[in-house]
Amino acid sequence: MRPDQVRDRIKRIAITVGAFVVVGIILWIDIATGLWNNLVVLSGLAAGIVTFILTALVLDRIIARSTAKRWAPVNRLALSEFLHALADEERSEISRGQIVHRELPYIREEPATATLRENLEELRDRVLHERELLSEALSRWAAFLASSGDNEQILLHIADIALQLDRVRDAALEAEASPSSITLRELESQTSSCNETMGALAAELRERIVGEDRAARAARRSSKHSHS
After folding, report:
1. Average pLDDT by stretches of 10, the chain with 228 residues
2. Chain mean position to CA 127
């Protein structure tokens, strides 16, 4: 699990615990002191807080889980398409969980090398191609993923890759305009960051797909047992 996912889970748990503590305090005050019977305005506010907390933390999550379960097959298809957009199709076997993500080539030539400009142009073309693949998948599935389950982090990570690809392109343009060891080192650094980000997203997508497949198999087994 990625560090940001761990932080988000801890944050959600802390918010949930804090919210139920507030509800508990409000109920305790009502039972122990009867304060809300004497303060009508405050009692209305307290009731509103309890209703909001129960709706946000219980009802909304039940609805969200039900929606995610109903659309799980389509959600898996969307995640698989993003994975295909990142995977090296010749070296990967996505159906078996073997994923090798594509990487941008590194430019490690000397500034005066005759082929430097040509290689920089090829790198920019590759960046454009990678961005187009992600943009096409995102245009088809962004609205669905945003409304069908817990996909916010994946969408944000895809956006991070798009921004990182732009940084690689800008660094390549700068290295072409002013070839030097400094601009080429910056290009290598940005390329490395982009490749790492793409690899992390590919691993995250694979983890999500494996998890959803496992949940689907468990649901089918439960359904068979309930009908037997």
Report:
1. 60 68 68 61 64 66 64 80 84 74 90 88 94 87 78 86 93 93 94 93 86 71 62
2. 21
Q: Rounded CA gap, 9 and 7, in Å?
A: 5
Q: Residue 44: name the closest of 60, 59, 26, 62 by CA.
A: 26
Alpha carbons 200 and 10: distance in angstroms, whole number? 21
Rounded distance between C-alpha atoms, residue 207 and residue 6, angstroms:
14
Let me know: does 183 contact 175? Beta carbons within 8 Å: yes
Within 13 Å of residue 87, how many CA atoms lie on the same side as its CB?
A: 22
**SS3 call for 98:** strand
State if pTM tops 0.90: no
Written as six digits, the tokens of 68 are: 């995610």
Most distant CA pair in the chain: distance in Å?
Answer: 86
Phi and psi torsions of 87, nearest 5°: -85, 150
Q: Which of 167, 175, 174 minimizes the C-alpha distance to 192?
A: 167
How far from the centroid of its chain's Cα atoms is residue 223's Cα?
A: 30
Cα–Cα dist 94/83, whole Å: 8
∠ CA 113-118-120 to the nearest 5 degrees? 90
- Cα–Cα distances in angstroms (integers) from residue 116 to residues 71, 138, 156, 178, 186, in the given order: 49, 33, 34, 12, 15
